[in-house]
Automatic annotation (TrEMBL):
UniProt family annotation: Belongs to the AB hydrolase superfamily.
Gene name linked to the record: rsbQ
Protein name: Sigma factor SigB regulation protein RsbQ
AB hydrolase-1 domain mapped to chain residues: 20-255
Gene3D superfamilies reported in the protein's UniProt record: alpha/beta hydrolase
Pfam family, one: Abhydrolase_6
Source species: Paenibacillus pseudetheri
Listed InterPro entries: AB_hydrolase_1, AB_hydrolase_fold
Length: 263
């Protein structure tokens, strides 16, 4: 099963007994965790990976057929867990990975001890009384921009999503966006922004911490509150951090809230 390790560029670090599995969001890879993993290395074993199609994963393993819904990404998570024979996992997922992790935990609750969701959303589209933050036309425009001018999309999207005065952080995110395969990135964006997993929330059983940023251009507070209301065993923390990437822009606050929850 060594091919999974290579396929998903799996890395294992840390010295602890308990395992934290970190799962990156859309347009990113495992390097996005670099500011928070050092704080957990002494107490935990840390597993990092890239989804197929992202980072240093094997791009040849990507097929539209497999990854046209989140279930292809769910399978990546389960493959990594089963290859490394992990159990009682603390799963930390950013953005769309929160839902990917939740779906994996619905399929195999026995693998998971706790879930921590950073900037999660069960549905990005506005729908009647539900406020997801985007109209369908917004997403369509975004996808068209990705097709026509990928670099332009990256430089437009990065400052919006990072929402931080430090230009280096925005540049780092833009670099991550632009390093992706444009065709795969556009397909992942479509799968992400048109996903709706509100119906699945009632099936989830693993205790969950929801970390919601206070001013997030991707996920409005209403979406985080909806998630908390419909997810059993969930704890909701509104962060002082702004933007959609608190693990990059506000690592100290992110680390503190994770540690508080885990202890």
């Amino acid at each position: 099963m060594n091919d999974i390790r290579v396929r998903n560029h799996v890395k294992v670090i840390g010295e602890g007994e308990r395992t934290i599995l970190f799962a990156h969001g859309f347009g990113c890879d495992q390097s996005m965790w670099q500011f928070i993993t050092p704080s957990f290395e002494k107490k935990y074993r840390i597993v990092l990976f890239d989804y197929v199609g992202s980072g240093n994963s094997n791009l040849n393993a990507y097929t539209t057929d497999k990854y046209h819904t989140l279930h292809g990404y769910v399978q990546d998570v389960l493959d990594v867990i089963e290859t490394l024979e992990l159990k009682d996992i603390i799963f930390i997922g950013h953005s769309i990975s929160s839902m990917i992790g939740m779906l994996a935990s619905i399929e195999r609750p026995d693998y998971f001890d706790k879930m921590i969701m950073i900037g999660p959303s069960p549905c990005y589209l506005n729908d009647g009384a539900y406020f997801g933050g985007f109209e369908k036309s917004d997403i369509t425009e975004l996808l068209e921009m990705m097709e026509m001018n990928f670099a332009g999309w990256a430089s437009f999207m990065a400052p919006l999503a990072m929402n931080n005065p430090d230009p280096m952080l925005t540049k780092e995110l833009e670099r991550s966006f632009i390093s992706a395969d444009p065709v795969i990135a556009r397909e992942f964006a479509e799968v992400t922004f048109f996903s709706d997993h509100r119906e699945d929330l009632s099936k989830a059983t693993v205790p969950t911490l929801i970390l919601q940023c206070s001013d997030d251009s991707i996920v409005p507070i209403a979406a985080g509150e909806y998630l908390h209301k419909h997810l059993n065993n969930s704890t909701f923390r509104l962060m002082e951090a702004k933007g959609h990437y608190p693990h990059i822009s506000h690592p100290e606050e992110t680390i503190t809230l994770i540690n508080e929850y885990l202890t």
